[in-house]
Design a protein that fits this description.
The structure holds two protein chains of two kinds. Chain A is an alpha+beta fold. Chain A has helices spanning 3-17, 25-31, 42-62, 84-87, 96-106, 112-127, 151-160, 234-242, 259-262, 285-293, 305-319, and strands at 23-24, 66-69, 79-82, 140-143, 163-168, 177-189, 192-199, 204-209, 213-220, 247-253, 266-270, 276-282, 299-303. In chain A, strand 11 and strand 12 form a beta hairpin. The chains are: A alpha+beta, B alpha+beta.
């Protein structure tokens, strides 16, 4: 950003903070350095108006609480000011441990949008006199998100309460379907990002995996178009989706093999052929079938039949490879 | 890093004078630069700019005034800029969500401190923090292993652990010198110097079966460098053999999870991706392909395809022998 613009904006903020009265655009133009002076021409007026509009937009974008109004009934036009009480970050004192917690927490973000927000939050806290130490604490390199391209659009729409439209493709489908959703929030669950909200076509709450969103979601309609339910628990919504029906499976494994499987299994004792019988629990038969097929001849499924069929299907495809 | 935005610079400019106001004795420039995350050169430009700003009138008594004493700077006239701007919604979300996540991670920070910090930040966020937060984070917190590993790191002690290696399907025992903890894609990893392997290794905490802090100090040798996990946890092995796979749609995640080359969209299978992987560990490649259950086929090398198919045929033979149908329905 050009130094001239930066200077002008800083002076504008200082000027509007320092006044109790509303200041008109004309007064701002005459006082704050950097605006096109009034030489009586329409060209100069247009130039000033454009510049001033952009400046106001920038301040609002930053969250500066720009007020418009009139100081007295005799004023012929609106003026501007910034109420100090609305502008300033309230007093905040943190103990050493609390500041350390904040420092550690802020390092958890890495996604483009919120990492920037985390950084500027940190700058503001330091400017408020809080000494947040991000260097202390154990050596920790966190990365909370997996760079989901749809994250930003979904988060922003949920934040602004705007309806979202996007193409969504399940793994077993060839063509994506267009979905219309009231986005309530984005959730990270077991390392994957989800969008939770109200599916407008089905009129029911739904959870969508961000990695299955095709292209960039688009917002439609105005901000503040809806209110999420007051008792909303985003994490619970996603967890509930995840928890399907639990199945019990019994498999046999050659002695000394399938160590990974045994870590999650309950031993049932030896089978008549010397193999070890194991019991497993799963809510995702497909995933378990993937795992079991990978052990090849070392593992044999006894039950349920559905699981056995799924494993045989995979093995048949693998056998056809050569 | 992407080009700094107007908003980024403005946030800094509006925060600098309050920052100095809160530190009336002055601050070394290098420290200010570090706190704001900019090079000292940029900080000087920012301070030069602020020096030209102030209250209307813009005379000597109106302009922001700074005193440079040696390598320190302090503010002598603030022009009213005594407090930073309040938090935006995004900033409040970033802070609140991160602190809530910390609450779910025992063993990383003092729980009470996190709770109190959360309450104070929420109060300070005011309006911005009031509405239902549109982000939630649920992190796998393997409590036991995490707490023990953290202790090892804090006390700089070596660790003894039992670790399951999926590529070889075996449980190993090792003594390691811990270097750091990583949280990637929701999973915890310990980066440590493995004395057995004589190299830096990443240990996924949910594969750690037993871990104990030893009395001896952690002493990673000078050649132990932290790995850059920016582009993923798995590192490409330059010069290793090339494995070429065709990934069906459901297996496309492989291209994102592992370092692949020569990525091409293909029609066979429909919506598929042809990729090349470099590895000398064909046992690993065999397990990967087998675990994809047919969603990935092997173009190269032929011996890999043959090994996978042979394993599968042997398994199918067991099912036939057990009197169970061995021919699956058309997939």
């Amino acid at each position: 950003m050009a130094a001239k613009r930066a200077e002008r904006l800083v002076n504008l903020v200082i000027a509007l903070l320092g006044t109790r009265q509303y200041v008109t655009a004309a007064k701002i133009r005459a006082t704050v350095p950097g605006y096109e002076p009034d030489d009586g021409t329409e060209r100069a007026d247009e130039a000033f108006k454009r510049m001033f509009e952009r400046d106001k937009a920038e301040l609002r974008e930053m969250g500066v609480p720009l007020e418009t109004g009139r100081t007295s009934v005799f004023d012929t036009e609106d003026g501007y000011r910034i109420a100090r009480a609305d502008y300033e970050l309230p007093e905040i004192t943190l103990t050493g441990e609390e500041a350390a917690a904040v420092g550690l927490a802020l390092r958890l973000w890495e996604s483009a949008q919120l990492a920037g927000a985390a950084h500027s939050a940190l700058v503001k806290l330091k400017a408020a006199g809080v000494d947040v130490d991000t260097a202390r604490a154990i050596p920790l390199q966190p990365r909370l998100d997996s760079h989901e391209p749809a994250f930003e659009a979904c988060y922003t729409a949920a934040r602004d309460r705007r309806v979202l439209e996007f193409d969504y493709r399940r793994p077993d489908e060839d063509t994506p379907a267009r979905r219309h959703v009231q986005p309530w929030g984005v959730v990270a669950w077991h390392g994957r990002w989800y969008l939770a909200g109200l599916d407008l076509d089905r009129q029911a709450p739904r959870v969508f995996r961000l990695s299955r969103v095709v292209g960039t979601p688009k917002v439609t309609g105005p901000a503040g178009a809806f209110e999420p339910p007051a008792d909303l628990d985003l994490a619970a919504m996603v967890a509930g989706q995840d928890r399907g029906e639990e199945h019990l499976a019994v498999v046999r494994a050659r002695p000394g093999s399938a160590i990974g499987l045994r870590r999650q299994a309950t031993p049932l004792g030896p089978a008549e052929d010397g193999d070890d019988r194991l019991q497993l629990r799963t809510t995702d038969l497909g995933r378990l079938a993937d795992q079991l097929a990978a052990y090849g001849p070392d593992v044999l499924v006894e039950a349920p039949a559905e699981l056995r069929a799924a494993v045989v299907k995979r093995l048949t495809r693998l056998a056809a490879m050569a | 890093m992407s080009a700094p935005t107007t908003t980024e610079r403005m946030t800094r400019l509006l925060a600098l004078v309050p920052y100095l106001t809160a530190r009336p004795q002055g601050v070394p420039l290098a420290e200010v630069a570090r706190d704001f995350g900019v090079p000292e050169r940029q900080l000087r430009r920012d301070l030069d700019l602020l020096w030209m700003c102030g209250l209307p009138g813009y005379g000597p008594g109106d302009l922001i005034d700074l005193a440079f004493e040696g390598d320190r700077v302090r503010v002598t006239f603030t022009a009213g800029m005594v407090r930073p701007l309040r938090l935006t919604t995004d900033e409040a979300v970033a802070l609140v969500v991160a602190l809530r996540t910390l609450l779910e991670l025992p063993g990383l920070a003092e729980r009470d401190a996190v709770s109190r910090a959360l309450a104070k930040i929420s109060a300070a966020a005011g309006h911005a923090g009031e509405r239902v937060t549109p982000v939630a984070l649920s992190v796998d917190a393997r409590e036991q292993a995490l707490a023990v590993v953290r202790e090892g790191l804090e006390r700089s002690r070596a660790l003894h652990l039992h670790y399951y290696v999926p590529t070889r399907d075996e449980r190993t025992e090792r003594t390691v010198d811990p270097m750091r903890l990583l949280l990637v894609d929701g999973r915890w990893y310990l980066e440590a110097w493995c004395r057995r392997a004589e190299g830096v290794r990443l240990f996924r905490l949910d594969r750690v079966d037993d871990v104990a802090v030893l009395d001896e100090p952690a002493a990673p040798p000078p050649e132990a460098h932290s790995r850059d996990v920016e582009s993923g946890l798995y590192q490409a092995q330059a010069g290793a053999r090339v494995v070429r796979l065709r990934l069906a749609r459901t297996a496309r995640w492989v291209a994102e999870y592992y370092p692949v080359e020569d990525v091409r969209e293909v029609d066979d299978p429909p919506g598929g991706l042809a990729v090349a992987l470099r590895t000398d560990d064909l046992a690993w490649a065999r397990r990967l392909v087998a675990s994809l259950g047919g969603a990935a086929t092997v173009d190269e090398p032929a011996e890999l395809a043959a090994a996978v198919a042979a394993d599968a045929r042997a398994a199918l033979a067991r099912y036939s022998a057990a009197g169970q149908p061995a021919v699956g329905s058309g997939g």
